[in-house]
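Checklist before submission:
- one chain only
- standard amino acids only
- sequence pasted in full

Submission:
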Amino acid sequence: MNTSRQANRVLALLFLGAFVMGSSELLIVGVLNLVAGDLSISVSAAGTLVTGYALGLALGGPILTALTIKLDRRTVMCGTLLLAVACNLVVALSTSYDLTLVARTLTGAFAGLFDATAFAVGIAVVPPHRAGRALAVVISGVAVSAAVGVPLGTVGGQALGWRGSYLAIVALIVLTLIATVAMIPSVPSTGAGVGGQARYAFAPRVLAVLVLCALVFGSTFAALTYIVPFLQDVTGVPEALVGVFLLAYGVAAALGSFGGGRFADRNAAGTLIVGAAVAAAALAGLHLFGTNPYLVGVLLLALGACAMGMGPSLQYRVVTLAGPGGELAQSLPASAINLGIAFGSFAGGVALGMFGGSAAILTGLAIAVIAVPVAWATSRLQPPPATSHSEKVCADHG
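Returned file contents:
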């Protein structure tokens, strides 16, 4: 790019794309009851639509990234957005649960490919000393979508119906595609070194933090996937006010995702210990005081701020501990997080189906309790002793 202004426009578009693609994942959580009724399935079965997307992103995203690594990044991004439009249209229009599940799973894989491609484009359009900030823009788009996707789904579902909400997502992806064609420059693949990076990216110290990624988000989404029935059946919140609770959660999570970067810079490992402990305490509070709407609101604020606030520290720790494998490792936290989301939403659904009430909250608490000592253990891990200057810069800004 020739000017900083042009680069900033591209980065703004990457933020928008990451936000829109990410919103399509969690939009469905806020309308889970509506989807279940429309498709004539149980709420726990509808929860597998969250699981399918997460598995698609976690497994399909890295595979598609590897398959397209030699292609121009602009071409990949345009193709990915086009396929995402098709899949979200299927979700919006299909009356078949099986077809909807397939479309959701494929959408997840395309979202994973989009994020990886956006990282590459972001780094390409800025000078080397701004690479970390470019990565942060894409991460922020994903983080904000995770923060507000659920309340947006709830509000949009009430105003437009859940299918109308997905048609709105389709329209936004189309706009993003048009802007991508007009604004994103050609970014040829530099394509080398994946094999050489793999032994660093998949080293035991990195895998340990990836396990922590899965536990943190697994615990959160075991509860969050089924928070609407919890608020209605346990807390007794009227349907018209559920969106207010979820919006409060979304605002807290968005603030946590932005503020978490400062804590990551200061002490990423320590942030993960404190964040995991507070998230566990918030889930315990939801179970113990779930019938008190005021306390539930406060506890959802704490859970949102802590869960999303840990995101930058998790990314930072993975990339730093990978050392020379940092470029490849950048794509791994998203996979680990979505495997955690898939497991958490599945486990919460099974518990809810068997026991009802606050069973999904208790499932999240059990996972969170495991995450605390894992966070402490990973805080003692150190990166490999020798990295090049460029790798240190990447790690510092990861």
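Reviewer check: Confidence is low (pLDDT under 50) at residues 387-398.
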